[in-house]
């Protein structure tokens, strides 16, 4: 059976932390679907099309990485893709507590069919978050050491 993982997020924008998790997870799975979720209550800095482009360009040389979008519950999307795993990155203890609750809920909702796999971010990237990147961008700071080369702002 093909081992498929979904790495869900808003990727607004993708950061070096996201890239690190995906690249380190490649040996673990046959395919990783980087899935951009839609949250109606969230105001995005980048359009969906821009976020797709950033991701596709970042992982253009990785055949095992697919970029997709979805609405609704992540666990429903994961099951619709016949994936067995949800991939999540952890930066700190607060991330762990939040993600643990979601992972337990997902397992309960899928009758233990979906397993969440956590990877710790590399030590030099644990401080990076999309919200910090957006703040640096909005205020004219040098964001280039926080994101892959494929992310540029303003256009």
Automatic annotation (TrEMBL):
Catalytic activity: (R)-4'-phosphopantetheine + ATP + H(+) = 3'-dephospho-CoA + diphosphate
Binding site for substrate: 10, 42, 74, 88
GO biological process: coenzyme A biosynthetic process
GO molecular function, one term: pantetheine-phosphate adenylyltransferase activity
EC assignment: 2.7.7.3
Segments forming domain Cytidyltransferase-like: 6-135
Compartment list: Cytoplasm
Chief location category: cytoplasm
UniProt cross-references to NCBIfam families, sorted A to Z: coaD_prev_kdtB (TIGR01510), cyt_tran_rel (TIGR00125)
PANTHER family, A to Z: PHOSPHOPANTETHEINE ADENYLYLTRANSFERASE
Description of how the protein assembles with itself and partners: Homohexamer.
Record's protein name: Phosphopantetheine adenylyltransferase
Gene: coaD
